[in-house]
Design a protein that fits this description.
Pfam families: TusA (PF01206). This is SirA family protein. The chain has a 4-stranded mixed beta sheet with strand order 1-2-4-3, covered by helices on one side. Helix 1 packs parallel to helix 2. The protein is α+β, with helices and mostly antiparallel strands. The longest helix is centred in the middle third of the chain and has 12 residues. 32% of the residues lie in helices and 35% in strands. Strand 3 and strand 4 form a beta hairpin.
Length: 71
């Protein structure tokens, strides 16, 4: 599983970085995105669902969020 750290970024940067990272993955691989700008969680989730990827896990954490996406 590849991990993408978007801490310190605010929208739309986390979504754009997630899109780029997903493009580099093979079908079936998973991407973990961690960040500290909580509104980005919903934006990333929306992007993932609208583009045919699967949200494996999405959660708010003490210092931000974590989302796991399957390509």
């Amino acid at each position: 599983m590849k991990t993408l750290d978007v801490k310190g970024d605010v929208c739309p940067v986390p979504v754009l970085k997630t899109k780029k990272a997903l493009e580099e993955l093979e079908e079936g691989e998973e991407l973990e995105v961690i960040g500290d700008y909580k509104p980005a969680l919903e934006n990333i989730k929306r992007f993932v669902e609208n583009n045919g990827y699967t949200v494996v896990l999405a959660e708010e954490t003490e210092d931000g969020f974590r989302i796991v996406i399957k390509k």
